[in-house]
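We modelled the chain as a single entity of 110 amino acids. Its sequence is:
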Amino acid sequence: MYTTLFILIFLGTLLFFVASDQVKAESKPQWLRKMAGKPVYARTLGTLVFLACWAAIAYLQGPGSGTFAMVGYLMASYSLLVLLRPLRYVNTVRLVVVTAAALLLETVIF
């Protein structure tokens, strides 16, 4: 559950990254460049993803600790994006592999 939420938060972060005018076009992921043409749409979709994840985390952990956890997840997500995007480590295949590995570990361990 938390793996899925963090991946969704990371995708919301990517949507805000793509919607930014300060990011060069070649730095944006290929599969999200269509969203770059409509930044309002990307920001709206990213906000909806963040709100849905916040609601799920607040339901699972309670409103106070869920809000605090959401802030922590957002900080971690933006840090990962700033760290890994310039190195071009963020792409569709790697996101799917990391998601599958994390879901497998989450299922086996918990």
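As a brief sanity check on the tokenised model: The chain is about 75% helix and 0% strand. The chain has a mean pLDDT of 86.
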